[in-house]
Amino acid sequence: MNLNLTNKVAIVLAASKGLGKAIATSLSAEGAKVIIGSRDENELAKTAAEIHGITGNEVIAIPVDVSNGEAVKEFIEQAAAKFGRIDILLNNAGGPSFNKFENFDDDAWQKAFELNLLSFARTSRLVLPHMQKTGSGRIINIISGSVKAVLASSVLSTAMRMGVVGMAKLMADEFGPYNITVNNVAPGMILTDRLKHTIPQGIDPEQALAEKAKNIPLGRIGKPEELAALVTFLASEHAAYISGTTIQVDGGASRGIF
Ligand SMILES: NC(=O)c1ccc[n+]([C@@H]2O[C@H](COP(=O)([O-])OP(=O)(O)OC[C@H]3O[C@@H](n4cnc5c(N)ncnc54)[C@H](OP(=O)(O)O)[C@@H]3O)[C@@H](O)[C@H]2O)c1
């Protein structure tokens, strides 16, 4: 299947590494002009150069902290000015911290809200006029399998991402008439630094990952490019009639039926 994203402009947030980087690489490989954003300017520039080296297509790096409203506004303005259009928005951010419910104070809740829910609302609101102007668009949110099954110590993730699920459903309803689709992709365990950092010190990483994989029907941890493949499909014309959904990429790990 040729996903052909030539002439499309994609914003990919939280993209210096991990899932965001894999998604930016995959979109770029399909011909999209990609604008990536995350906080560390040097890491971001390195990633942009690396992706360009692989795909040969233009990749622009603009540093941004997605939890800072002013910075996000400036980022979207700069991104829109770069190629004069925005076709694809990939919302993503660092994950909230893991702990028991009783250990999170108001400050932790506020930070998680700004990073994992408000940031997605802001970027979506800011790209909307650009997508309305071209008469089409794709908004894709990276959330977590924690919206489908309880994952220990993930109350901040679950609470914020359930908000994204509700928001995306509403946005799919309101944006449909503009030919803009809105979908969520929910990773299970995908091998990135975030997952590696959950392994307690002193434990052999390979053994720990093998242990985690035991509960996954496909018997292994996922690869970032496997999640990126779904996002790239959702970003393409082939997914024009898919909107308002949450799709898991978890090797079958979530046993819930709904
Ligand atoms: N990997 C998994 O198995 C998995 C499973 C479920 C959910 N998720 C979720 O998927 C998302 C991505 O995870 P990942 O595994 O790709 O993580 P990762 O490998 O740790 O990468 C995180 C990326 O986010 C950027 N970032 C962090 N905070 C940011 C901020 N405030 N503003 C802008 N960029 C920011 C980081 O760059 P800077 O630090 O330079 O900003 C980096 O590029 C997270 O929300 C995570 O919770 C992942």
Structure description:
By secondary structure, the protein is of the alpha/beta class. It has a single domain, classed as NAD(P)-binding Rossmann-like Domain (Rossmann fold, 3-Layer(aba) Sandwich), CATH 3.40.50. Helix content is 45%, strand content 14%. It has helices at residues 18-29, 41-55, 69-83, 106-134, 155-175, 193-196, 205-213, 224-235, and strands at residues 9-13, 33-37, 59-61, 88-91, 137-142, 180-187, 246-249. The protein has a seven-stranded parallel β-sheet with strand order 3-2-1-4-5-6-7, sandwiched between helices. It is globular, with a radius of gyration of 18 Å. The model has no long low-confidence stretch (mean pLDDT 97). Bound molecules: NADP nicotinamide-adenine-dinucleotide phosphate. The site of NADP nicotinamide-adenine-dinucleotide phosphate (NAP) has 30 residues, from α1 and α6.
The CATH topology assignment is Rossmann fold
Mean pLDDT: 97
Strand elements, count: 7
Name the structural class. alpha/beta
Residues in helix, %: 40-55%
Global Rg:
18 Å
Strand percentage lies at: 5-15%
Bound molecules: NADP nicotinamide-adenine-dinucleotide phosphate
> Oligomerization state of this entry?
single chain
- Overall CATH architecture: 3-Layer(aba) Sandwich
Ends distance: 29 Å
The ordered string of helix (H) and strand (E) elements is EHEHEHEHEHEHHHE
Which parts are unreliable, with pLDDT below 50 for 5 consecutive residues or more?
Answer: none
Number of helices: 8
User: Considering the protein shown, what is the CATH homologous superfamily?
Assistant: NAD(P)-binding Rossmann-like Domain
